[in-house]
Amino acid sequence: MKSNAAVGFKSKPQGQEKTGPAPPLEVKKEKTEEENFKEMEEEVHRLLEASADFKLKKNFNEALNKAKDAASKEKKIR
Q1: Are 48 and 72 in contact (CB under 8 A)?
Q2: Contact status, residue 23 vs residue 11, Cβ threshold 8 Å
Q3: Mean pLDDT per segment of 10 residues, for the chain of length 78 residues?
Q4: Would you state the pLDDT for residue 21?
Q5: What is the rounded CA–CA span in Å between residue 17 and residue 20?
Q6: Which one, of 73, 19, 12, 16, lies nearest residue 43 by Cα?
Q7: pTM given for the model
Q8: What's the pLDDT at 12?
Q9: Helix (H, G, I), strand (E, B) or coil at 76
Q10: Of 41, 51, 49, which Cα lies nearest the Cα of 75?
Q11: Which of 9, 12, 27, 37 is most solvent-facing, going by the fewest CB within 10 Å?
């Protein structure tokens, strides 16, 4: 006899022999403010990366436009 069985413990708790699967999780409907800020930060980062790429390709006008877009979106985050 195992020590758990000797003190009266059973392999399955009482009342839980016939449990089904858990109910499905609730789907989020709206994004939180933190998620919105994170998306905006990612967009600013993508714009800055694009600006740097255009600068390396010597396309300075497009690089400047992307940097300006990134700066204006960053101001919205603050």
Answers
A1: no
A2: no
A3: 70 63 83 90 96 96 96 90
A4: 83
A5: 9
A6: 73
A7: 0.60
A8: 65
A9: helix
A10: 41
A11: 27
Give Rg (Cα) of the chain. 28
Written as six digits, the tokens of 21 are 């699967």
Compute the distance between CA of residue 49 and CA of residue 68 in angstroms, rounded to an integer.
Answer: 13
> Six-digit token pair at 50?
């694009």
Report residue 4 as tokens: 């758990």
Token pair for 63: 């690089």
Q: What is the pLDDT of residue 45?
A: 96
From CA 27, how far away is CA 36, in angstroms rounded? 17
Residue 44: how many other CB atoms lie within 10 Å: 19
User: Which amino acid makes up residue 20?
Assistant: G
